[in-house]
Amino acid sequence: MQNKQEYLALTEKRAARSPVLRDCFFAFVIGGLICLAGQGLRSLYLALGIEERPAMTLVTVTLIFLAALFTGLGLFDDLARIAGAGTLVPVTGFSNAVVSPALDTKSEGMILGVGSKIFTVAGPVLLFGTLAGALYGVLYYLYGVIFV
Q: Are 99 and 70 in contact (CB under 8 A)?
């Protein structure tokens, strides 16, 4: 029987150390490639004669679709294992955060599974992002009224 100190020593010894520099490198490179893909899509849509604003909307929609598709095919998780935070480029990471819980709970049905769990991960991001934006807006307004 192990005591607490022996157990902690054993778990620390067996815990894998994260190769931080390698992780940062792959996050940077793969995140940059995702952004490069977005830029390439923008250039493609502009070359097809689509105006700037609709082209940018199409880029966003395309990246959301591709991230959702790759999540559904199980490819996004493989990429995320290598890229880490590099896959959290806002649109693709958000798409994955919505699709993953939906896939995990689809066996529970469309209402009690997918419908109730789809925003499990993304919901707090939406809630606190919206609240932070509102708070910053009020502070910005007050700053303008008081100091300007």
A: no
User: Is the confidence at residue 82, as pLDDT, over 70?
Assistant: yes
In tens, the pLDDT along 135-147 reads: 999 999 999 988 8
Average pLDDT over every residue of 60-75: 93
Residue 122 corresponds to which amino acid? Answer: A
Q: How far is CA 91 from CA 12, 18, 31, 34, 125, in A?
A: 36, 26, 12, 10, 12
Q: How far apart are the first and last CA of the chain?
A: 69
Cα 140 to Cα 118: distance, rounded to the nearest angstrom? 33
- Residue 34's nearest CA partner among 70, 63, 54 is 63
- Model confidence at 1, pLDDT cuts 50, 70, 90, reads low
User: Any long-range contacts for 87-90 (C-beta under 8 Å, 24+ apart)?
Assistant: 87/30, 87/31, 87/34, 88/31, 89/31, 89/34, 89/35
| Alpha-carbon span 46 to 59, nearest angstrom | 10
Residue carrying the six token digits 């009690």: 112
